[in-house]
Amino acid sequence: MTTTSRPPARAGRGHSRVLEVSTAAGPGTTRVVDEPLAPTDRGTSVLRIHRFAVTSNNVSYFRTRDQLGHGRAFPAASGWMRVPVWGDATVVDGASGGPREGTRVIGYLPMATTVAMSLEPRTDGTLVETSAGRSHLPPIYQQYRVVESPADGLELATLHIEALASALVPDLVGAGVEHVLISSAGSKTGQALAFLLAEAGVACTGLTGDRSAPGGNAAALVGYDDLSSLSVPPGSVFLDIAGDPRLRGRIVAQCGGALARTLGIGGTRLAGPIPAEYAGPASPVVERYGAGPRLAEMEREQGTDAVRLLRERTRLRLLAWARETVTVRRLDGLGAAAAVWPGIVRGGHGATEIHLVAP
Ligand SMILES: NC(=O)c1ccc[n+]([C@@H]2O[C@H](COP(=O)([O-])OP(=O)(O)OC[C@H]3O[C@@H](n4cnc5c(N)ncnc54)[C@H](OP(=O)(O)O)[C@@H]3O)[C@@H](O)[C@H]2O)c1
Description:
By secondary structure, this protein is α/β, with parallel strands linked by helices. The chain has helices spanning 56-63, 65-68, 153-174, 188-199, 245-254, 291-302, 304-325, 334-346; strands at residues 2-4, 15-22, 30-36, 45-54, 80-81, 84-93, 104-110, 114-117, 119-121, 127-129, 143-147, 179-182, 203-208, 219-223, 236-240, 259-264, 287-288, 327-332, 353-358. The strands form 3 sheets. Strands 4, 6, 7, 8, 9, 10, 11, 18 and 19 form a 9-stranded mixed sheet that branches. Strands 14-13-12-15-16-17 form a 6-stranded parallel sheet. α3 (153-174) packs across α4 (188-199), α3 (153-174) packs across α6 and α6 packs across α7.
């Protein structure tokens, strides 16, 4: 269900239109609010948002809003959440000491036409959001990359995968892992990880509800309805993107003792709270793997320059993957984003398509 709180007004520098999701009624209910942007405090810049991608990743931000802190990134009225997305934006009203007008950035944004942020330039050329309201999140959710020209739509569509892939692929390769099992292999994250791991010589088996998903040469696909045929070599690592504890229990049982580790990566198929019987000590041990905390750790271990180079290489490989695999579906306006959102919550948005919204 979608509601509009007021007749849509033209969004300008002093106004913003924002798509919010109801925390009271559930992820299928949205509204578009039209509000004046609060007069900018000293140090606050106003950015016009050009485009952002919407996938199951953003639904996961909604579902884990309290545990992972995405619910507080862009404050909303009680009962609503401004779900974060990844996209590009330009500074239209610069603060003194902040980025100048016309600076174009890529990063973590609300589903909105404009946003006010406290951006500080850093010596490495990036901008960092420094407001206290964002300090609980890992640095990747505070850093903005400055770009000279509009980014390729395919790059915007894969931004949410880049940090994870930059950390996880070298971690698995460095640990000598030879085979991974991926649930929700039909997700863009699952497909892209399989592609990058295959390039690095790691074999993949993918579990999916959609066997027409383009595993390509990267992963051998098995349907959830055919789990009894699943077998993996000893020492395999399970990358659990589906996140459904019942499904995970069945998969781990089917693999016997062959799984060396289970990493909790996502929650595409996690619709509600985890039932108590699946959270107890008898359940399979799951190590939560988040790109944000892991990249922060890697920066401390290897230095920021090394991690920047690693991320740049991953960005280019992801773009190569997306060019072969992904079709960008462009949507105009927050109303169009609100119209596709319930389908994304239900998971019916297709394995090769990514919605890119011009708000
Ligand atoms: N840990 C991290 O740092 C990190 C980073 C990036 C992404 N992620 C996570 O990776 C997951 C995938 O994100 P994405 O943006 O790549 O997703 P996506 O491409 O939008 O995923 C779509 C796929 O997810 C499954 N799915 C989604 N919703 C479903 C539903 N309601 N019911 C049943 N199946 C559903 C289906 O695949 P199947 O049929 O194959 O299950 C569907 O084809 C998200 O949970 C995201 O949070 C985690």
